[in-house]
Each structure stands twice: as structure tokens, then as C-alpha cells.
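It would be a great kindness if you could assist me with a short task in structural biology. The full record is reproduced below for your convenience:
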Amino acid sequence: MSLHGKHIIVTGGASGIGLAIARKLLQASAFVHVIDRSDSMTQDLGDQEGLLHFYPSVDISSREQVTQTFDEIAQKGSAVHGLVNCAGIVEQHPTTTDSDLAFKRVLDVNLTGTWNTTTEFMRLVKSSGDIDKKTGVSIVNIGSTASFRGFPGIPGYVASKHAVHGLTKAWAQEFGYLGVRVNMVAPGVVITPMTKVDGSGKADDLTGIPCALDRLAHPEEIADVVHYLLGSSSTYVNGQGIEVNGGWL
């Protein structure tokens, strides 16, 4: 499932799961366009072939900033082949009138941001001409176990990730005739800066995680599934939400 020479856009690619995805794609010799709100990558990915393009300090909740960034990508003159919507935030807040701003912040990034990047991506796809219907173009949304379940204390996050699942299914129907596949990867708890665990990987690092494998996921384990969905081994996989949670049943 070669991604050699393909142009893949990864939002939230400067750290955590997004960074692992970017690294995996670079190892596959893909051109990787990382969009992030940070001004620098948290790790040097050792790009020796000039495959990595970094677009820093981009707020994906801003249509203007996203349009400008995708215009920069388009100016490089190559067709785009894949989009990974990995950027996201989580905030703890109750369901009260005092939480309006927190609720809005989470939805602005996780939902509106995904909408902004996908619509701009599809603008580039449609302007690039005919798509090979066999290999096609692939969009992978990063959802969450919270795309399928409810959790107290993070209603904005749960709502946003359920919505991303809904968009995945809607877009799979809407874009399928073009040869564009849309799927969602839904991780459980992953060892990243967002989860703030110590890296030991034991499920009891966070209480109440009913994971059959009794450990947390490593970002690379999520990146492997994303790589599969972007590649030619998944050309008939469309509209799916794939849970990667170690057996959170």
C-alpha cells in the first residue's frame, strides 16, 4: 500500500498522535504537510529528503487562516491525496450556564475546525482534475471512544466527537462518487501530552479505563491504522468508524 510520493495533509501533526502519523507517513516516503497551532514541531522527525512541510501557528477554527494555508499548499503545484483531521482539544467543564465559552472553544476546534479543513481540502481535490477511482483519495478523521460513548465532565468533547463521527458518515456518502473515501479512527486513551500520563502505559494510570489489554495505547499504534486507511489496501473501506482502544467493550 505505497504512499510514496503522495501528498498528505495532517492537522495537529506537531505532537502526540498527529506527530506519530506524520512520522509514519514520512517513513512511507510521502510528502507530509503538517498544520498546527504550535509554532514548532515537538520532535525532529529527521526529514532528510525534504518531504516535510510545516505550517505553524494556524488556528483551524478560523476559515481565513485555513483558506490561506491550503492556498499555500496548492501553490506547491501537486495534487493532494489524503487528509488526516487530527487536531483537537479537550476541556473539562460542567453542563452549566457558566460553561458556554468552554463548550464553544471545544466545538470550534474539534468540529468547526474539521469542517474548515475538509471543505478546503475538497476544494483542492476538485480543482486538481480526475481522480483514479480505484486508488482514490482518502480522508481520515480522528475521533475518539467518546464518538460512541458518553462521559461526564467533558460534554463539549463528547458532543464534538459524536459530530465528527456523523460528518464521517455524511461525507462518505457525499464524496464517494468522486472516489474520495472518508473514515474515522477512534482511539481510546493514548499516551500523549493531552492525556498527561507518565508513559508507563498501564491502564490503571487513569482510573476507570476498562481496557482488556490492561494498558494505554502508544501513538504509533493509532498511526498504523491511519496509514492503512490512507493506503491502497483499504480502497473499499468507506464511512467506517474504527475503534482502536485495546478492547474497551
